[in-house]
Design goal:
Length: 114
Amino acid sequence: MDIKTASALHRLRLISVPEALSFPALLIFGSLLSRVSDIDYLMMPLGILHGILFVIYAVFLLDVWNKAKWPLKKVALFFLFALLPFGGLYGDRLLKRDEADSVVAARAREAAQA
């Protein structure tokens, strides 16, 4: 794996956790509190934050698709993770596992060349 692909995967991992947590925060603190109480000032900032994080996640996912040459099914799965509450946490776990496998494979290649 080259450095550009590794950095694209790392960026996707970095944004997946905040994006995964922003959606439930919007649902719980924004929607629920505005319906059961007079606290309605959280909806707009949380909505904007979640929207920005979602767009960044989608852009980083497209970047990974371009650089890592993922199949469309894998890209669709990771996009689905962004639509589900806490889905990005599972996506982060999968990316972490792939990253660890890549490091092991790179070390094995280095050992074979030496």
